[in-house]
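Thread: "does anyone have the structure for this chain?"

Original post by V.I.:
We have the sequence but no experimental structure in hand. Need at least a predicted one for the grant figures.
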Amino acid sequence: MEIGIIGKGKMGRDIFNHFFQYDHKMVLICRRKEDVEELKVSIEKQLGKMLKRSLLTEAEYQQKRKAFVISNQYADLASCELVIESVLEDKMLKQEIFSEIEPIVKPECILATNTSSIPLDFVFEKCKKKNRCMGIHFFFPVKLTRTVEINKTSFTEEPYVEIVKELLTKADKSFLELDEKGNMILTRMFTTVITQIYKIYEESILDIEEIDRILKDSLVTYGLFEIID
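Reply from O.Q.:
Generated one for you, tokens below.
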């Protein structure tokens, strides 16, 4: 599958890196032209290290070098079968991105947002073919957090959901398939816990670094403030 990721932040790069382990062609879209070469060099160095450590054969190394594109042009998403937007939680920006890329991608290309909080009906409001739109919500760090939310809208059609479920399963992810009432339910759970933890911080019992350290030592791989960040 050819997968496009929009956004070079830590979550966008994490999603890109995870799928890049598998047999997918990857396209990473960043906003600034000056970031393109920097990202290319970074990925080439990563592949070079894997080759030196015998984590890749020479043939696999050469194949991987041809299996990714870094660009600041949406036109490079034209042949993708799935595009995942992972930019700032700015509802107008997300809506604008999908209105711009929809005429570029193939009619059957799945359009997905990684939003953890913005209503999907708003994100996809300007899309004409809403039946292929959904939320695919990863949690940071993607490599270590196995669960992914598949957040559906009232327009999302099951054949597209099935494609995503198969993709996630092959990428060693488990998933929660959620309808509109249940969308982003894990984020809602985390937010409830974060609210209570923040009260502890406000009462000057522990600072944020101490809270995250205790949680990592006792309960979770990453501190909750790190996950939500």
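V.I.: this helps a lot. The mean pLDDT is 89.
O.Q.: and The chain is about 45% helix and 15% strand.
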